[in-house]
Design a protein that fits this description.
It is built from two helices and six strands, in the order ββββββαα. The chain has a two-stranded antiparallel ribbon. A two-stranded antiparallel ribbon has the order 3-4. Helix content is 15%, strand content 15%. The chain has helices at residues 76-80, 86-94; strands spanning 3-4, 12-13, 40-42, 48-50, 61-62, 67-68.
């Protein structure tokens, strides 16, 4: 599926040019989707979050392919985040 990005001129957001900008967002784990423990961090309040690397990227993102290594077990919020929608375009613009 290809979606026309309205805030980035002449840019269509596809899997091929996604750039995984959403993988720099903080992801709290509210529901259990089976995220493997090695990708989970517990914050000082006991909350569970996706682990992030020192540079801010999600630890489940394969940096060579820019593809999620746990796609089938990704958190609920990641499943709801839609390519080309407002939040996606906003994150892409913030990371240009």
């Amino acid at each position: 599926m290809t979606i026309k990005a309205t805030t980035l001129p002449d840019t269509e957001v596809t899997c091929a040019n996604c750039e995984a900008c959403c993988c720099r967002l903080e992801v709290m784990l509210i529901t259990d989707t089976g995220v493997p423990d090695n990708f989970i961090e517990i914050d000082k309040w006991g909350g569970r979050n996706m682990a992030r690397l020192e540079d801010g990227w999600c630890s489940a993102l394969d940096r060579n392919t820019m593809i999620c290594m746990i796609y089938e077990k990704r958190p609920w919020i990641c499943r709801e985040f839609e390519t080309g929608e407002y939040e996606c375009i906003s994150e892409r613009a913030a990371n240009l």
